[in-house]
Amino acid sequence: MLRAREAVYSLKSYHPPLGNREGLRLDFNENTVGCSPRVLERLRNLDAELLARYPEREPAERVVATHLSLEPDEVLLTNGTDEAIHLICETYLEPEHEALIGVPTFAMYEIYAAATGAKVIPVLGDQSFRFPADEILRRVNERTRLIAVANPNNPTGAQASQGDLLRLAKATPHAALLVDEAYFEFSGETLMTQWREVPNLFVSRTFSKAYGLAGLRIGVLAGNIEAMKLVRRVSSPYNLNSVALACLPEALADQNYIAQYVAEVLRGRERLERELRQRGIKHWPSRANFVLMYFGETGPAFIAAMRERGILVRDRSRDPGCAGCVRITLGSAAHNERLFAVLPEALEQAGVMNKVAR
Fold this sequence. Notes:
The protein has 14 helices and 13 strands. It has helices at about 5-10, 35-45, 50, 60-70, 80-90, 110-115, 135-140, 160-170, 185, 225-235, 240-255, 255-280, 300-310, 335-350; strands at about 25, 75-80, 100-105, 120-125, 145-150, 175-180, 200-205, 220-225, 285, 290-295, 310, 315, 325-330. The radius of gyration is 21 Å and the shape is globular. The relative contact order is 0.16.
């Protein structure tokens, strides 16, 4: 009988709720209006010859490196952030190793790390959802080979300090520290280039969120040149498709479009947090394009009430420490107005009280 590796049988499955997503999608942290018009124009002008050729990643990597003020050898384009995580796990983890992951966070860190056979150690913070740097350091030992951090974190929106992250990297030179900056555009804080001082640091970004290119699956992994040479050995030379590579330079060139969209998201985020404060609804300050809030037992009713009004929001109750929590993505000004227009009546219908005790 054909058997998979033992690690595969115990892997958790990630099942995003993709079915029946009709309406305003404020559930997946996607860009609510889509990509720059320049990207659409490039798509319209693609020809058959481009699709007939194998994709060439290096020209787009040079464009991205220039955009990030990096050397091309410090940059590897990936099939979304997911592949960046996968490549780091495949490069550094053996079955006898351990990976430390602060939770709650993005599920794929645990899945990709566990797929190698390594032991995954989740580290749960307190109810403030602050990054548990000290507790992670306490768990480090000679078997630790990976520490994965989403910064800002998903689903909490919390931002780990650069000081804590660099302290982790310097204290664990035998382990790869992956800092996933998928929501960088909404926080403005980055550890890019810091691997020149701490070579075990890697930083990943995605073009799925602010850039509106989730369907094209483009991310970037950056790090120390010597370390990136090893990661490239694990990567396929054709991991990105030609359409994505052709569109990426146009997306990067339209920074005015990105800046305008991000500004609208930040105004919406500030307004949502203000509304929640005024209603006494517990929530956590966010540095991303979403806000996590606590509704307790009324959470499912609130989600249903929002769906009735054509708006999807995300139940995060299954995440560690997030029982009763709901996450709402912010988007364009027009979409934020739709959210705020129905929010009060959805709260009332769901029976959410002015004070939600946890």
